[in-house]
Amino acid sequence: MAYQATQYIRQVEAKPYAExxxxxxxxxxxxxxxxxxxxxxxxxGALSRLxxxxxxxxxxxxxxxxxxxxxxxxxxxxxxxxxxxxANTLLFEDGLHAITTATAMxxxxxxxxxxxSIADQGKIRDxxxxxxxxxxxxxxxDSGIHLTIPKRRAD
Length: 155
Prior knowledge:
Blueprint: H1 3-11, H2 18-27, E1 33-36, H3 40-50, E2 58-61, H4 62-65, H5 73-82, E3 91-93, H6 96-104, E4 109-112, H7 121-127, E5 130-132, H8 135-140
Parallel strand pairs: 1-2, 3-4, 4-5
Protein backbone atom coordinates (compact mmCIF):
# COMPACT_ATOMS: atom_id res chain seq x y z
CA MET A 1 0.00 0.00 0.00
CA ALA A 2 1.34 3.43 -0.89
CA TYR A 3 2.53 5.75 1.86
CA GLN A 4 -0.23 8.30 1.19
CA ALA A 5 -2.96 5.65 1.49
CA THR A 6 -1.46 4.31 4.71
CA GLN A 7 -1.32 7.81 6.19
CA TYR A 8 -4.94 8.46 5.18
CA ILE A 9 -6.09 5.25 6.85
CA ARG A 10 -4.16 6.05 10.03
CA GLN A 11 -4.84 9.76 10.32
CA VAL A 12 -8.13 10.79 8.73
CA GLU A 13 -10.73 11.81 11.29
CA ALA A 14 -14.49 11.60 11.07
CA LYS A 15 -16.40 14.80 10.55
CA PRO A 16 -17.97 16.19 13.74
CA TYR A 17 -21.23 14.37 14.54
CA ALA A 18 -20.62 11.79 11.80
CA GLU A 19 -21.18 8.82 14.07
CA UNK A 20 -24.32 10.32 15.64
CA UNK A 21 -25.74 11.02 12.17
CA UNK A 22 -24.89 7.57 10.87
CA UNK A 23 -26.33 5.94 13.97
CA UNK A 24 -29.56 7.95 13.60
CA UNK A 25 -29.98 7.01 9.93
CA UNK A 26 -29.03 3.39 10.57
CA UNK A 27 -31.49 3.06 13.47
CA UNK A 28 -34.22 4.39 11.19
CA UNK A 29 -33.32 1.71 8.63
CA UNK A 30 -32.16 4.23 6.04
CA UNK A 31 -29.84 2.51 3.54
CA UNK A 32 -26.40 4.13 3.51
CA UNK A 33 -23.79 4.11 0.77
CA UNK A 34 -20.48 5.89 0.36
CA UNK A 35 -19.55 7.32 -3.03
CA UNK A 36 -15.91 8.37 -2.72
CA UNK A 37 -13.20 9.79 -4.95
CA UNK A 38 -10.62 7.79 -3.00
CA UNK A 39 -9.54 4.18 -3.38
CA UNK A 40 -11.72 1.52 -1.75
CA UNK A 41 -8.93 0.27 0.54
CA UNK A 42 -8.41 3.79 1.90
CA UNK A 43 -12.09 4.29 2.70
CA UNK A 44 -12.63 0.83 4.15
CA GLY A 45 -9.43 1.08 6.21
CA ALA A 46 -10.19 4.50 7.65
CA LEU A 47 -13.86 3.79 8.36
CA SER A 48 -13.02 0.43 9.94
CA ARG A 49 -10.44 2.11 12.18
CA LEU A 50 -13.03 4.72 13.17
CA UNK A 51 -15.71 2.07 13.77
CA UNK A 52 -18.00 3.55 11.11
CA UNK A 53 -17.89 0.98 8.30
CA UNK A 54 -20.59 -1.09 10.01
CA UNK A 55 -23.21 1.56 9.24
CA UNK A 56 -22.85 1.32 5.47
CA UNK A 57 -24.63 -1.05 3.13
CA UNK A 58 -22.26 -0.45 0.25
CA UNK A 59 -19.37 1.56 -1.14
CA UNK A 60 -18.49 2.77 -4.62
CA UNK A 61 -15.38 4.67 -5.66
CA UNK A 62 -14.38 6.87 -8.56
CA UNK A 63 -11.52 4.52 -9.52
CA UNK A 64 -14.00 1.63 -9.75
CA UNK A 65 -16.40 3.66 -11.89
CA UNK A 66 -13.64 5.16 -14.00
CA UNK A 67 -14.66 8.79 -13.56
CA UNK A 68 -14.54 11.55 -10.99
CA UNK A 69 -17.42 13.14 -9.11
CA UNK A 70 -17.49 15.79 -11.84
CA UNK A 71 -19.24 13.13 -13.92
CA UNK A 72 -22.67 11.82 -12.86
CA UNK A 73 -21.64 8.16 -13.38
CA UNK A 74 -20.63 7.57 -9.76
CA UNK A 75 -23.88 9.04 -8.45
CA UNK A 76 -26.01 7.18 -10.98
CA UNK A 77 -24.34 3.89 -10.05
CA UNK A 78 -24.72 4.65 -6.34
CA UNK A 79 -28.45 5.29 -6.78
CA UNK A 80 -28.76 2.06 -8.74
CA UNK A 81 -26.92 0.16 -6.00
CA UNK A 82 -29.28 1.56 -3.38
CA UNK A 83 -32.27 0.58 -5.50
CA UNK A 84 -34.07 3.79 -4.61
CA UNK A 85 -35.52 6.64 -6.64
CA UNK A 86 -33.19 9.61 -7.06
CA ALA A 87 -35.72 11.91 -5.40
CA ASN A 88 -35.61 9.72 -2.28
CA THR A 89 -31.84 9.76 -2.04
CA LEU A 90 -29.95 12.38 -0.06
CA LEU A 91 -26.31 13.22 -0.71
CA PHE A 92 -24.14 14.68 2.05
CA GLU A 93 -21.20 16.33 0.30
CA ASP A 94 -18.47 18.88 1.00
CA GLY A 95 -16.93 19.30 -2.47
CA LEU A 96 -18.20 21.94 -4.88
CA HIS A 97 -17.51 19.85 -8.00
CA ALA A 98 -19.56 16.93 -6.65
CA ILE A 99 -22.38 19.20 -5.46
CA THR A 100 -22.49 20.86 -8.88
CA THR A 101 -22.79 17.46 -10.57
CA ALA A 102 -25.37 16.10 -8.14
CA THR A 103 -27.66 19.12 -8.23
CA ALA A 104 -27.48 19.24 -12.04
CA MET A 105 -28.84 15.70 -12.12
CA UNK A 106 -31.61 16.52 -9.64
CA UNK A 107 -30.14 14.74 -6.63
CA UNK A 108 -31.08 16.35 -3.28
CA UNK A 109 -27.91 17.61 -1.55
CA UNK A 110 -26.91 18.67 1.94
CA UNK A 111 -23.74 20.71 1.64
CA UNK A 112 -21.46 20.13 4.62
CA UNK A 113 -18.84 22.70 5.57
CA UNK A 114 -15.28 21.42 5.39
CA UNK A 115 -11.92 23.13 5.85
CA UNK A 116 -10.91 22.04 2.34
CA SER A 117 -13.83 23.86 0.72
CA ILE A 118 -14.06 27.10 2.71
CA ALA A 119 -13.24 29.13 -0.43
CA ASP A 120 -16.26 27.55 -2.15
CA GLN A 121 -18.66 27.95 0.77
CA GLY A 122 -20.78 30.64 -0.92
CA LYS A 123 -21.22 28.62 -4.11
CA ILE A 124 -21.96 25.46 -2.12
CA ARG A 125 -24.63 27.32 -0.11
CA ASP A 126 -26.22 28.52 -3.35
CA UNK A 127 -26.29 25.08 -4.98
CA UNK A 128 -27.13 22.75 -2.10
CA UNK A 129 -30.71 22.20 -0.99
CA UNK A 130 -29.49 22.67 2.57
CA UNK A 131 -26.13 23.80 3.97
CA UNK A 132 -24.84 22.89 7.42
CA UNK A 133 -21.70 23.78 9.32
CA UNK A 134 -21.61 20.26 10.72
CA UNK A 135 -23.68 17.07 10.66
CA UNK A 136 -25.01 17.79 14.14
CA UNK A 137 -26.75 20.84 12.72
CA UNK A 138 -28.51 18.61 10.18
CA UNK A 139 -29.53 16.18 12.92
CA UNK A 140 -31.03 18.97 15.01
CA UNK A 141 -32.78 20.75 12.14
CA ASP A 142 -36.50 20.39 11.85
CA SER A 143 -36.69 22.70 8.87
CA GLY A 144 -34.24 20.79 6.70
CA ILE A 145 -34.95 18.51 3.80
CA HIS A 146 -37.64 15.99 4.58
CA LEU A 147 -37.74 13.09 2.17
CA THR A 148 -39.77 9.95 2.13
CA ILE A 149 -36.84 7.59 2.09
CA PRO A 150 -37.73 3.92 1.73
CA LYS A 151 -36.45 1.73 4.54
CA ARG A 152 -33.55 -0.67 4.16
CA ARG A 153 -34.65 -3.84 2.41
CA ALA A 154 -35.03 -6.91 4.58
CA ASP A 155 -32.58 -9.54 3.39
